[in-house]
Amino acid sequence: MSASSVAARPAATGTYNNPLFWERLWRSAGIQFLGTFIVGYFVYGTQPHVGSSPDALTAFYVGSRTRILIAAIFGGMSILNLMWFAAAIRTTLADAGVGGWGSAATGSSAAVGGVFTMIISLSAALAYSIGDSGNQALTSALNDSIWALFVLSSFPRAMLVMSSAFGLWRAHMISDSLFGAGVGVVVLGVLGGTTWLSDGFWAPDGVYSRFVWPILSLVWLLVVSRVLAKAPATRSGW
């Protein structure tokens, strides 16, 4: 086929060839992430605490094997949606002339996705075979590693909040008060990486790490989703 015939060929039309379709889809990926995350969270159940007894670990990873593996599927879908959502943030910010913050969103979402892939992989491996192998020391070590990874994921999660807060503010898409709220979430998120007490509220499996910081980050995700839904369509990128 000659170059002239290719150039003369009309562009494909249809829903899936419309850039607006993909832009709307990935701008809503934050809501899709939230949906798959909530389903996976409730299917998975309660993660055994740090230092749980061998019987408790066996009961969870062996007794709930099917639930954990199903939850791993929803967890993988959550990671995909989160990274697509970050791509929508990057495109929107780049179009507004603050692409640096958009690149930060891309990088931080990749880091979050990487850490959570490790967490999901460890949980799935424990449920699939390791938890039933009889090696209680290994099972306990991997279970504690899941909590350590979750704590350390606070830093890229905080960076993802920061990149969206600063980027949208610099692009004049959010108010000063909403920007201040975002900065507050960033600070509280970084503090989530310091939850290393042996037990209690500030432990890796404590209330702050398990509930306070995750809920704050999810609320911010909803805020950003609403802002992106109202933002003008980008000139290019999809």
Give descriptors for this structure.
disordered N terminus, mainly alpha, 0% strand, 238 residues, globular
Integer tally of domains: 1
Radius of gyration, CA atoms, in whole angstroms: 21 Å
Helix content: over 70%
Would you identify the regions where 5 or more consecutive residues have pLDDT less than 50? 1-12
User: Strand tally, please?
Assistant: 0
- Decide which structural class fits the backbone: mainly alpha
Tell me the distance between the termini. 27 Å
Mean of residue pLDDT values: 91
Largest sheet: none
**Which overall shape is indicated by the principal axes computed on the Cα atoms?**
globular
What share of the residues does DSSP label as strand, in percent?
under 5%
In N-to-C order, the SSE pattern is HHHHHHHHHH
Question: Please, how many helices?
Answer: 10
Any overview of this molecule?
This protein has 238 residues and is an all-alpha fold. 73% of the residues lie in helices and 0% in strands. It has one domain. The protein has helices at residues 3-8, 19-27, 29-44, 54-61, 65-95, 99-128, 136-152, 154-170, 176-191, 207-230.
Ordered list of secondary-structure elements with their pairings:
Blueprint: H1 3-8, H2 19-27, H3 29-44, H4 54-61, H5 65-95, H6 99-128, H7 136-152, H8 154-170, H9 176-191, H10 207-230
Helix pairs in contact: 3-5, 3-10, 5-6, 6-7, 6-8, 8-9, 8-10, 9-10
